Amino acid sequence: MTKSKITYLAVLIAVFVGVGVWMTSDQESTEGKQGRQELVVLSYGGAFAKAQRAAYFEPFEKETGIRIVDASYGGEYGKLKAAVESAKSTGNTVPWDVIDLEASALIRGKRDDILTSIPSGKVDTAELIPEAVDTHGIGTDFYSVSLGWNTGAFPSSGPQPTSWKDFWDVGRFPGPRTMKKDPRFTLEIALLADGVLPDQVYMNGSLDVDRAFKSLEKIKPHISVWWSSGQQPIQLLSDGEVVMAAAFGARLNNAQYKDKKPVAMTWKGGILDIEYWAVPKYARNPEAAFEFIDFASRADRQAQFPEFIPLGPANKKAFEIMPEALAKNLNTYPTTFKTQVVLSAEYWADNEKEVLERFNRWLGQ
Protein backbone atom coordinates (compact mmCIF):
# COMPACT_ATOMS: atom_id res chain seq x y z
CA MET A 1 0.00 0.00 0.00
CA THR A 2 1.34 3.41 -0.97
CA LYS A 3 1.93 6.16 1.51
CA SER A 4 -0.86 8.27 -0.03
CA LYS A 5 -3.37 5.41 0.35
CA ILE A 6 -2.33 4.89 3.97
CA THR A 7 -2.81 8.59 4.67
CA TYR A 8 -6.22 8.60 2.94
CA LEU A 9 -7.34 5.54 4.97
CA ALA A 10 -6.20 7.15 8.20
CA VAL A 11 -8.20 10.27 7.42
CA LEU A 12 -11.31 8.20 6.72
CA ILE A 13 -10.91 6.31 9.98
CA ALA A 14 -10.48 9.56 11.89
CA VAL A 15 -13.58 11.02 10.27
CA PHE A 16 -15.72 7.97 11.10
CA VAL A 17 -14.43 7.82 14.68
CA GLY A 18 -15.10 11.53 15.06
CA VAL A 19 -18.62 11.17 13.72
CA GLY A 20 -19.19 8.24 16.07
CA VAL A 21 -17.96 10.23 19.07
CA TRP A 22 -20.10 13.22 18.05
CA MET A 23 -23.19 10.99 17.59
CA THR A 24 -22.64 9.26 20.94
CA SER A 25 -22.13 12.56 22.71
CA ASP A 26 -25.22 14.04 21.06
CA GLN A 27 -27.26 10.94 21.89
CA GLU A 28 -26.21 11.09 25.55
CA SER A 29 -27.08 14.77 25.66
CA THR A 30 -30.49 14.12 24.12
CA GLU A 31 -31.19 11.24 26.49
CA GLY A 32 -30.18 13.38 29.45
CA LYS A 33 -32.45 16.15 28.24
CA GLN A 34 -35.32 13.75 27.71
CA GLY A 35 -34.77 12.32 31.21
CA ARG A 36 -35.03 15.79 32.71
CA GLN A 37 -38.12 16.49 30.62
CA GLU A 38 -40.14 13.86 32.47
CA LEU A 39 -40.97 13.66 36.16
CA VAL A 40 -43.04 10.85 37.69
CA VAL A 41 -45.15 11.89 40.69
CA LEU A 42 -46.77 9.26 42.89
CA SER A 43 -50.00 10.42 44.52
CA TYR A 44 -53.50 9.18 45.40
CA GLY A 45 -55.31 9.26 42.07
CA GLY A 46 -58.94 10.17 41.42
CA ALA A 47 -60.26 13.65 42.14
CA PHE A 48 -57.20 14.38 44.27
CA ALA A 49 -54.81 13.81 41.37
CA LYS A 50 -57.04 15.86 39.05
CA ALA A 51 -56.82 18.78 41.47
CA GLN A 52 -53.04 18.39 41.71
CA ARG A 53 -52.78 18.33 37.93
CA ALA A 54 -54.74 21.58 37.62
CA ALA A 55 -52.98 23.42 40.46
CA TYR A 56 -49.46 21.99 40.24
CA PHE A 57 -48.65 19.64 37.37
CA GLU A 58 -49.90 21.56 34.32
CA PRO A 59 -48.59 24.97 35.48
CA PHE A 60 -45.20 23.36 36.23
CA GLU A 61 -45.11 21.80 32.78
CA LYS A 62 -45.85 25.14 31.15
CA GLU A 63 -43.25 27.01 33.18
CA THR A 64 -40.40 24.51 32.94
CA GLY A 65 -41.08 22.29 29.95
CA ILE A 66 -40.75 19.24 32.21
CA ARG A 67 -43.59 16.80 31.61
CA ILE A 68 -45.24 15.25 34.66
CA VAL A 69 -46.51 11.70 34.59
CA ASP A 70 -48.76 10.96 37.56
CA ALA A 71 -48.91 7.53 39.13
CA SER A 72 -51.27 6.47 41.91
CA TYR A 73 -51.23 4.33 45.03
CA GLY A 74 -53.23 3.92 48.23
CA GLY A 75 -50.60 5.31 50.57
CA GLU A 76 -49.02 1.90 51.19
CA TYR A 77 -45.70 2.50 52.92
CA GLY A 78 -44.56 -1.06 52.17
CA LYS A 79 -44.75 -0.34 48.44
CA LEU A 80 -42.38 2.61 48.80
CA LYS A 81 -39.91 0.75 50.97
CA ALA A 82 -39.85 -2.31 48.69
CA ALA A 83 -39.18 -0.17 45.61
CA VAL A 84 -36.24 1.63 47.20
CA GLU A 85 -34.73 -1.59 48.56
CA SER A 86 -35.07 -3.20 45.12
CA ALA A 87 -33.35 -0.24 43.45
CA LYS A 88 -30.55 -0.39 46.00
CA SER A 89 -29.90 -4.09 45.41
CA THR A 90 -30.17 -3.99 41.61
CA GLY A 91 -28.53 -0.64 40.90
CA ASN A 92 -31.65 0.60 39.12
CA THR A 93 -33.81 3.65 39.81
CA VAL A 94 -37.19 3.68 41.56
CA PRO A 95 -40.28 4.23 39.38
CA TRP A 96 -41.04 7.68 40.84
CA ASP A 97 -39.24 10.98 41.33
CA VAL A 98 -41.65 12.62 43.80
CA ILE A 99 -44.03 10.94 46.23
CA ASP A 100 -46.98 12.31 48.19
CA LEU A 101 -47.11 10.68 51.61
CA GLU A 102 -48.57 11.17 55.07
CA ALA A 103 -46.58 12.42 58.04
CA SER A 104 -46.21 9.05 59.77
CA ALA A 105 -44.91 7.52 56.51
CA LEU A 106 -42.41 10.36 56.25
CA ILE A 107 -41.10 9.57 59.74
CA ARG A 108 -40.81 5.88 58.93
CA GLY A 109 -39.15 6.67 55.61
CA LYS A 110 -36.48 8.75 57.34
CA ARG A 111 -35.81 6.01 59.87
CA ASP A 112 -35.61 3.34 57.16
CA ASP A 113 -33.37 5.58 55.04
CA ILE A 114 -35.53 5.39 51.91
CA LEU A 115 -35.95 9.15 51.43
CA THR A 116 -33.50 11.74 50.13
CA SER A 117 -32.81 14.70 52.40
CA ILE A 118 -33.76 18.04 50.87
CA PRO A 119 -30.62 20.15 50.34
CA SER A 120 -30.60 23.55 51.97
CA GLY A 121 -31.83 26.27 49.63
CA LYS A 122 -33.55 23.95 47.17
CA VAL A 123 -37.03 24.77 48.50
CA ASP A 124 -38.14 28.16 49.80
CA THR A 125 -39.73 27.42 53.17
CA ALA A 126 -39.82 30.96 54.60
CA GLU A 127 -43.62 31.29 54.36
CA LEU A 128 -44.56 27.72 55.24
CA ILE A 129 -46.30 26.68 58.45
CA PRO A 130 -43.48 25.32 60.67
CA GLU A 131 -45.07 21.87 61.00
CA ALA A 132 -44.89 21.55 57.21
CA VAL A 133 -41.09 21.75 57.02
CA ASP A 134 -38.98 18.63 57.51
CA THR A 135 -35.46 17.63 56.54
CA HIS A 136 -36.85 14.99 54.18
CA GLY A 137 -40.22 16.38 53.14
CA ILE A 138 -42.19 19.56 52.50
CA GLY A 139 -45.85 19.79 53.48
CA THR A 140 -48.26 20.29 50.60
CA ASP A 141 -51.57 20.39 52.47
CA PHE A 142 -53.27 19.73 55.79
CA TYR A 143 -56.37 17.57 56.16
CA SER A 144 -58.59 17.11 59.20
CA VAL A 145 -60.98 14.63 60.72
CA SER A 146 -63.74 16.95 61.88
CA LEU A 147 -67.18 17.01 63.44
CA GLY A 148 -70.16 17.02 61.08
CA TRP A 149 -73.91 16.66 61.59
CA ASN A 150 -77.16 16.30 59.72
CA THR A 151 -79.01 19.63 59.63
CA GLY A 152 -82.36 17.87 59.46
CA ALA A 153 -81.68 16.27 62.84
CA PHE A 154 -80.13 19.43 64.31
CA PRO A 155 -81.34 22.53 62.40
CA SER A 156 -79.93 26.01 62.97
CA SER A 157 -83.16 26.99 64.71
CA GLY A 158 -82.18 24.79 67.66
CA PRO A 159 -79.06 23.59 69.45
CA GLN A 160 -76.34 22.21 67.20
CA PRO A 161 -73.23 20.28 68.22
CA THR A 162 -70.03 22.32 68.43
CA SER A 163 -67.55 19.95 70.11
CA TRP A 164 -66.64 16.31 70.62
CA LYS A 165 -68.27 16.53 74.05
CA ASP A 166 -71.51 17.17 72.17
CA PHE A 167 -70.79 14.16 69.94
CA TRP A 168 -70.64 12.07 73.12
CA ASP A 169 -73.79 13.71 74.55
CA VAL A 170 -76.44 11.30 73.28
CA GLY A 171 -79.01 12.74 75.67
CA ARG A 172 -78.96 16.23 74.22
CA PHE A 173 -78.14 15.09 70.68
CA PRO A 174 -79.72 11.66 70.23
CA GLY A 175 -79.21 9.41 67.25
CA PRO A 176 -76.68 7.07 65.63
CA ARG A 177 -73.14 8.22 64.86
CA THR A 178 -70.26 7.13 62.65
CA MET A 179 -66.51 7.23 63.33
CA LYS A 180 -63.33 6.32 61.48
CA LYS A 181 -62.27 2.68 61.77
CA ASP A 182 -58.76 3.67 62.74
CA PRO A 183 -57.20 4.43 66.12
CA ARG A 184 -55.43 7.41 64.57
CA PHE A 185 -57.68 10.45 64.91
CA THR A 186 -60.24 8.37 66.86
CA LEU A 187 -58.23 8.12 70.09
CA GLU A 188 -57.37 11.82 69.97
CA ILE A 189 -61.06 12.64 69.52
CA ALA A 190 -61.99 10.39 72.47
CA LEU A 191 -59.57 12.26 74.72
CA LEU A 192 -60.95 15.65 73.68
CA ALA A 193 -64.46 14.37 74.37
CA ASP A 194 -63.32 13.30 77.82
CA GLY A 195 -62.15 16.82 78.64
CA VAL A 196 -58.47 16.69 77.74
CA LEU A 197 -57.27 20.10 76.57
CA PRO A 198 -55.98 20.27 72.98
CA ASP A 199 -52.42 21.11 74.04
CA GLN A 200 -52.40 18.15 76.44
CA VAL A 201 -53.55 15.40 74.07
CA TYR A 202 -49.92 14.32 73.69
CA MET A 203 -48.40 14.58 77.14
CA ASN A 204 -44.64 14.10 76.92
CA GLY A 205 -45.14 12.93 73.35
CA SER A 206 -47.54 10.11 74.28
CA LEU A 207 -51.29 9.43 74.21
CA ASP A 208 -53.20 8.24 77.27
CA VAL A 209 -54.45 5.18 75.42
CA ASP A 210 -56.22 3.65 78.43
CA ARG A 211 -58.21 6.84 79.03
CA ALA A 212 -59.06 7.06 75.34
CA PHE A 213 -60.50 3.55 75.27
CA LYS A 214 -62.52 4.22 78.43
CA SER A 215 -63.96 7.26 76.69
CA LEU A 216 -64.73 5.26 73.56
CA GLU A 217 -66.61 2.68 75.63
CA LYS A 218 -69.19 5.37 76.43
CA ILE A 219 -69.94 6.18 72.79
CA LYS A 220 -69.42 2.71 71.25
CA PRO A 221 -73.11 1.60 71.58
CA HIS A 222 -74.13 4.65 69.53
CA ILE A 223 -71.69 4.12 66.65
CA SER A 224 -73.75 2.41 63.96
CA VAL A 225 -70.96 2.42 61.35
CA TRP A 226 -67.18 2.39 61.66
CA TRP A 227 -66.21 3.75 58.27
CA SER A 228 -63.11 3.04 56.21
CA SER A 229 -64.00 4.82 52.94
CA GLY A 230 -63.81 8.62 53.09
CA GLN A 231 -67.10 9.24 51.28
CA GLN A 232 -69.07 6.78 53.39
CA PRO A 233 -69.79 9.07 56.38
CA ILE A 234 -70.83 11.87 54.01
CA GLN A 235 -73.37 9.58 52.37
CA LEU A 236 -74.63 8.37 55.75
CA LEU A 237 -75.07 11.95 56.97
CA SER A 238 -76.71 13.11 53.75
CA ASP A 239 -79.18 10.22 53.81
CA GLY A 240 -79.98 10.76 57.49
CA GLU A 241 -78.79 7.28 58.46
CA VAL A 242 -76.59 8.91 61.09
CA VAL A 243 -76.99 12.27 62.81
CA MET A 244 -73.31 12.95 63.49
CA ALA A 245 -69.96 11.93 62.02
CA ALA A 246 -66.26 12.16 62.62
CA ALA A 247 -65.28 12.54 58.97
CA PHE A 248 -62.74 14.15 56.68
CA GLY A 249 -63.30 17.87 56.98
CA ALA A 250 -62.75 18.63 53.30
CA ARG A 251 -65.52 16.19 52.34
CA LEU A 252 -67.84 17.64 54.97
CA ASN A 253 -67.00 21.10 53.68
CA ASN A 254 -67.81 20.14 50.08
CA ALA A 255 -71.05 18.46 51.14
CA GLN A 256 -72.18 21.60 52.96
CA TYR A 257 -71.06 24.37 50.62
CA LYS A 258 -70.57 22.85 47.18
CA ASP A 259 -73.09 20.00 47.03
CA LYS A 260 -75.68 21.72 49.27
CA LYS A 261 -76.36 18.53 51.24
CA PRO A 262 -78.16 18.65 54.61
CA VAL A 263 -74.77 18.65 56.30
CA ALA A 264 -72.95 21.15 58.50
CA MET A 265 -69.53 20.98 60.11
CA THR A 266 -67.03 22.72 62.34
CA TRP A 267 -63.23 22.75 62.15
CA LYS A 268 -63.02 23.33 65.92
CA GLY A 269 -61.50 20.33 67.65
CA GLY A 270 -60.48 18.72 64.37
CA ILE A 271 -57.46 16.44 64.24
CA LEU A 272 -55.00 17.63 61.61
CA ASP A 273 -52.52 15.59 59.63
CA ILE A 274 -50.06 16.69 56.96
CA GLU A 275 -49.33 15.38 53.49
CA TYR A 276 -45.76 15.86 52.30
CA TRP A 277 -43.87 15.90 49.05
CA ALA A 278 -40.73 13.77 49.33
CA VAL A 279 -38.05 12.40 47.00
CA PRO A 280 -37.25 8.69 47.29
CA LYS A 281 -33.69 7.50 47.21
CA TYR A 282 -32.54 6.29 43.78
CA ALA A 283 -34.97 8.61 41.99
CA ARG A 284 -34.08 9.23 38.35
CA ASN A 285 -34.44 13.02 38.45
CA PRO A 286 -33.84 14.32 41.99
CA GLU A 287 -32.87 17.83 40.86
CA ALA A 288 -36.06 18.24 38.82
CA ALA A 289 -37.95 16.75 41.77
CA PHE A 290 -36.66 19.45 44.13
CA GLU A 291 -37.53 22.05 41.50
CA PHE A 292 -41.10 20.75 41.39
CA ILE A 293 -41.47 20.73 45.19
CA ASP A 294 -40.23 24.32 45.34
CA PHE A 295 -42.73 25.27 42.63
CA ALA A 296 -45.62 23.47 44.35
CA SER A 297 -44.80 25.20 47.65
CA ARG A 298 -45.33 28.66 46.18
CA ALA A 299 -48.22 30.72 47.51
CA ASP A 300 -49.83 31.14 44.09
CA ARG A 301 -49.92 27.39 43.51
CA GLN A 302 -51.20 26.55 46.97
CA ALA A 303 -53.87 29.25 46.66
CA GLN A 304 -55.32 27.46 43.63
CA PHE A 305 -55.46 23.89 44.94
CA PRO A 306 -58.27 24.53 47.52
CA GLU A 307 -60.50 25.75 44.70
CA PHE A 308 -60.81 22.07 43.74
CA ILE A 309 -60.45 20.32 47.11
CA PRO A 310 -60.76 22.41 50.31
CA LEU A 311 -57.57 21.26 52.01
CA GLY A 312 -55.60 23.84 53.97
CA PRO A 313 -52.43 25.16 52.31
CA ALA A 314 -49.04 24.88 53.99
CA ASN A 315 -47.98 28.29 52.64
CA LYS A 316 -49.40 31.05 54.85
CA LYS A 317 -49.14 33.63 52.05
CA ALA A 318 -51.64 31.62 49.99
CA PHE A 319 -54.45 33.10 52.09
CA GLU A 320 -53.57 36.57 50.84
CA ILE A 321 -54.09 35.49 47.22
CA MET A 322 -57.26 33.39 47.35
CA PRO A 323 -60.77 34.85 47.84
CA GLU A 324 -61.41 35.75 51.47
CA ALA A 325 -64.52 33.57 51.67
CA LEU A 326 -62.50 30.53 50.62
CA ALA A 327 -59.55 31.38 52.88
CA LYS A 328 -61.70 31.65 56.01
CA ASN A 329 -63.28 28.29 55.27
CA LEU A 330 -60.05 26.26 55.31
CA ASN A 331 -58.53 24.35 58.19
CA THR A 332 -55.15 26.13 58.20
CA TYR A 333 -56.61 29.64 58.24
CA PRO A 334 -54.74 31.18 61.22
CA THR A 335 -57.69 31.58 63.60
CA THR A 336 -59.00 28.10 62.71
CA PHE A 337 -55.66 26.32 62.79
CA LYS A 338 -55.14 27.09 66.48
CA THR A 339 -58.44 25.41 67.45
CA GLN A 340 -57.27 21.99 66.22
CA VAL A 341 -54.77 19.31 67.22
CA VAL A 342 -51.95 18.25 64.92
CA LEU A 343 -51.59 14.48 64.85
CA SER A 344 -48.22 13.35 66.24
CA ALA A 345 -46.51 11.51 63.40
CA GLU A 346 -43.69 10.45 65.73
CA TYR A 347 -46.09 8.84 68.18
CA TRP A 348 -47.93 6.87 65.49
CA ALA A 349 -44.74 5.83 63.72
CA ASP A 350 -43.64 4.26 67.02
CA ASN A 351 -46.95 2.83 68.24
CA GLU A 352 -49.32 2.29 65.33
CA LYS A 353 -48.95 -1.50 65.08
CA GLU A 354 -49.54 -2.13 68.79
CA VAL A 355 -52.41 0.34 69.17
CA LEU A 356 -54.09 -0.82 65.95
CA GLU A 357 -54.09 -4.41 67.20
CA ARG A 358 -55.68 -3.29 70.48
CA PHE A 359 -58.24 -1.16 68.62
CA ASN A 360 -59.28 -4.05 66.36
CA ARG A 361 -59.63 -6.37 69.36
CA TRP A 362 -61.75 -3.74 71.12
CA LEU A 363 -64.01 -3.36 68.09
CA GLY A 364 -64.65 -7.10 68.07
CA GLN A 365 -65.64 -7.28 71.74
What's the SSE blueprint?
Layout lengths: L2 H34 L1 E6 L2 H19 L2 E6 L4 H14 L7 E5 H9 L26 E13 L13 H5 L8 E4 L2 H11 L15 H11 L3 E5 L4 H8 L4 E5 H10 L4 E16 L7 H11 L2 H6 L7 E2 L4 H4 L2 H4 L6 H4 L3 E2 L2 H20 L1
Parallel strand pairs: 1-2, 1-3, 5-6, 5-7, 8-10
Antiparallel strand pairs: 3-8, 4-7, 4-8, 4-9
Summarize it.
The chain is an alpha/beta fold and 365 residues long. It has helices spanning 3-36, 46-64, 77-90, 103-111, 164-168, 183-193, 209-219, 232-239, 249-258, 286-296, 299-304, 318-321, 324-327, 334-337, 345-364; strands spanning 38-43, 67-72, 98-102, 138-150, 177-180, 223-227, 244-248, 263-278, 312-313, 341-342.
List keywords for this structure.
365 residues; alpha/beta; D-Maltodextrin-Binding Protein, domain 2; 2 domains; 10 strands; 47% helix; disordered N terminus; SBP; transmembrane helix
Uncertain spans: 1-35
CATH topology of the largest domain: D-Maltodextrin-Binding Protein, domain 2
Quick one: CATH class of the largest domain? Answer: Alpha Beta
**What is the name of the CATH architecture of the largest domain?**
3-Layer(aba) Sandwich
Assign an overall shape: globular
Distance between the termini: 98 Å
Instruction: Work out the number of β strands.
Output: 10
Strand content: 15-25%
- Counted by DSSP, the helix tally is 15
Question: Mean pLDDT, rounded to whole units?
Answer: 91
Which structural class do you get from the secondary structure elements? alpha/beta
Largest sheet: 10 strands, mixed
GO cellular component, one term: outer membrane-bounded periplasmic space
Transmembrane segments: 6-24
Keywords: Membrane, Periplasm, Signal, Transmembrane, Transmembrane helix, Transport
InterPro entries: SBP
